[in-house]
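Database export, one record per block. Field names are fixed; values are copied verbatim from the stored entry.
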Amino acid sequence: METAIPSSTARPVRRRDRLLTVLAATVATLVGWVVAVPLAGVELTARSGGGEQRVGPVAVAVSTLLAGLAGWALLAVLERFTGRAGTVWTVVAVLVLLLSLLGPVGGGVGRAATLTLVALHLLAGAVLVPGLRRTAVR
């Protein structure tokens, strides 16, 4: 049975849970990067603007943080305009995740890099989508 949180405490709890979700996704993708790059020896390189660049831990962390914060912002906006924010947000989030996979599929340099980049995208989505959806106002 779900316990209702008094409205005076609901917003800070929701904010905390969303922040923890974004941070958990960031930590998860960084752990994935550590396992793939330093431990497994994957050369994580992607094509970018006609050249190639290595994908380091800062890029992984910043990308995940930005994706998480963008998802959080979209959810907050949807909560102001629709009573079905959680459902609408989830559909949009899954579509964005699927579209984001086009980047690594077309830009990864080599099979290992491509698979690792896809895995990092899916890992971020696996934390962000259910984590942020869980915090949606009902």
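Remark 1: The first strand starts at residue 45 and ends at 48.
Remark 2: Strands lie at 45-48, 51-54.
End of record.
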